[in-house]
Every structure is written in C-alpha cells, then in structure tokens.
Amino acid sequence: SIDATQEGLHTLSKDTARIVDEIDPKRPVLIEAYLSPDPPKDYEQTRRDLVDLLARFDAMGGDRVEVQIYDTEPFSPVAKEAEKVYNIRPQ
Q1: Cα 35 from Cα 48, distance rounded (Å)
Q2: What whole-number distance in Å separates Cα of residue 18 and Cα of residue 38?
Q3: Is residue 68 scored above 90 in pLDDT?
Q4: Alpha-carbon 80 to chain mean position
Q5: Residues whose CB falls within 8 Å of the CB of residue 48, separated by 6 or more in sequence, listed in order
Q6: In terms of DSSP bridges, do strands 65-71 and 29-35 run parallel, antiparallel, or are they unpaired?
Q7: Is residue 32 within 8 Å of 70, Cβ to Cβ?
Q8: Span 79-91, average pLDDT
Q9: Are 82 and 89 a contacting pair, CB within 8 Å?
Q10: Distance from C-alpha of 49 to C-alpha of 44, rounded to nearest angstrom
C-alpha cells in the first residue's frame, strides 16, 4: 500500500521493515491492542493512526506478525481480561 499523507505518517522505516522481515516464522509476534471504540475527541486521530500502523505491521509481517485489536468498553469482559492479563486499567 502507498502512504499518501504529506508527512509520510503511515510509512514504516527501512529499519522497521528489516526487523519485521527478520522475525523467525517459527516464533511469530502477536500484537494485542485494547482500544476504546469511542475515544475522547482529542484522541480520535491518534486511534486512527494507531489502527493504520498496526494494519501495516500485520500486512508486512505476513505469518510472522499477527495483530488483534479489541474494542474495549469499560467494565466489559474484554476490559476485565486486559486488566487481569496486562494490568491495563480504564483511564
């Protein structure tokens, strides 16, 4: 895919691409992101940028990288799991 932003915001560096290419397919990387589906207005663009970046990692990594994005509402089972497993607390 092509990064059409003027600032190149969604372009992964050559070093990042090299690191992803060097991931051992026998030991893939799992990226789990717990995100609010409805963040405060000041964080909407940050959420979109993060989701886009994770999608690039997922596409670039093939079988070496798996990205799972969880829409996480406060007090939901997913939020409770994030707190239990990763000590992520609602803010």
Answers
A1: 10
A2: 34
A3: yes
A4: 19
A5: none
A6: parallel
A7: yes
A8: 88
A9: no
A10: 9
Q: Distances from the Cα of 26 to the Cαs of 15, 35, 65, in angstroms? A: 21, 28, 11
Give the pLDDT of residue 10: 57
Write out pLDDT tens, residues 22-64.
999 999 999 999 999 999 999 999 999 999 999 999 999 999 9
| b/e map 16-38, b = 16+ CB within 10 Å | eeeebeeeeeeeeeeeebbbbee
CB 37 within 8 A of CB 71: yes
- The Cα–Cα gap between 8 and 6 comes to 6
CB atoms within 10 A of CB 72: 21
Q: Which amino acid is at 21?
A: D
pLDDT above 80 (res 2): no
Placement of tokens 């990387």 in the chain: 29
Alpha-carbon gap, residue 14 to 60, rounded angstroms: 12
